[in-house]
Backbone:
């Protein structure tokens, strides 16, 4: 007893009891008890549909047909990628144009706003908050909101641009040459604040002594921007471009809220086409699954290019 008491009284040491190991095992079981339901739920919600849709992409199957899936191997992918089904290529072209235009304008406008708001002035916090409001709204609500703005008889967009309440041939959402631009304008209005926010965080992290040293060396403003500002902000700018490019390839809710893919198929992105093939009357489940995986592969490939560029930039 005296030996045990001496060990207990010595500082920095704990008494080992025969119940300590048993308590640890019980704690581990309790942790698994709470974690396992979440893991099972995630597997059922995410992993199972992913694997099952991959299986369906190799089958001729319709969800409303009372027939089991029929294995067709790569036929669904061949139907989508061959030139005979040129309409799919049109959807990819529309999606590519939309991604390039919207992301490019968002980068330019967002970075410009970040450079302007970098300089603190009276009310800059309020201005920043007001600019961030569009990205907090639901895309469906934004689409319906801007649909009223683009209305040629009731909206104010034509009046602000042309100073006329109505104008023949200026129905933005009904004109095949203007409808895609209308969606780009709304997307830029909504998500330029996101790019601005990331760029603003990068600008605020640049040490002031870099600019002070450049000023002592009498470096020009363009030299400071090219050698100090842009390299420091570029990693965050690439991350913003990566996120917005991925979202542009998946554009659905904003397009459906504004045009629904009309007029004709002028604004029918891949996501809208996939929705129509899978649910609106056709119910081509197998072919739609194949199209979804083609989009997934494109997004992964584009993401890898951005990530490689980001890694090279960090190494440099």
Residues:
């Amino acid at each position: 007893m005296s030996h045990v008491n001496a060990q207990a009284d010595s500082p920095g040491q704990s008494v080992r009891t025969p119940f300590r190991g048993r308590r640890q095992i019980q704690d581990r079981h309790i942790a698994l008890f709470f974690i396992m339901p979440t893991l099972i739920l995630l597997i059922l919600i995410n992993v199972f549909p992913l694997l099952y849709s991959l299986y369906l992409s190799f089958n001729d199957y319709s969800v409303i047909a009372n027939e089991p899936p029929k294995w067709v191997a790569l036929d669904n992918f061949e139907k989508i990628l061959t030139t005979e089904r040129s309409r799919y290529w049109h959807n990819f072209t529309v999606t590519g144009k939309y991604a390039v235009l919207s992301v490019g304008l968002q980068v330019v406008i967002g970075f410009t706003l970040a450079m302007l708001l970098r300089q603190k002035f009276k009310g800059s916090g309020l201005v920043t908050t007001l600019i961030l409001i569009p990205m907090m709204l639901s895309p469906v609500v934004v689409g319906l909101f801007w649909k009223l703005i683009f209305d040629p008889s009731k909206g104010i967009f034509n009046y602000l641009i042309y100073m006329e309440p109505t104008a023949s041939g200026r129905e933005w959402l009904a004109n095949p040459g203007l409808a895609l631009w209308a969606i780009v304008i709304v997307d830029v209005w909504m998500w330029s604040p996101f790019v601005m926010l990331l760029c603003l965080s990068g600008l605020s992290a640049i040490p002031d002594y870099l600019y002070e040293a450049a000023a002592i060396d009498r470096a020009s403003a363009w030299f400071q921007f090219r050698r100090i500002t842009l390299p420091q902000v570029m990693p965050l700018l690439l991350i913003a471009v990566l996120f917005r490019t991925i979202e542009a390839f998946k554009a659905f809710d904003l397009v459906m809220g504004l045009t629904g893919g009309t007029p004709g198929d002028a604004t029918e992105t891949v996501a809208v086409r996939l929705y129509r093939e899978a649910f609106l009357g056709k119910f081509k489940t197998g072919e739609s699954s194949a199209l979804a995986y083609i989009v997934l592969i494109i997004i992964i490939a584009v993401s890898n290019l951005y990530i490689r560029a980001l890694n090279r930039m960090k190494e440099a």
About this structure: The chain is about 70% helix and 0% strand. The CA atoms of residues 54 and 167 lie 49 Å apart. The chain has a mean pLDDT of 87. The chain has two domains: 2-48, 76-315.
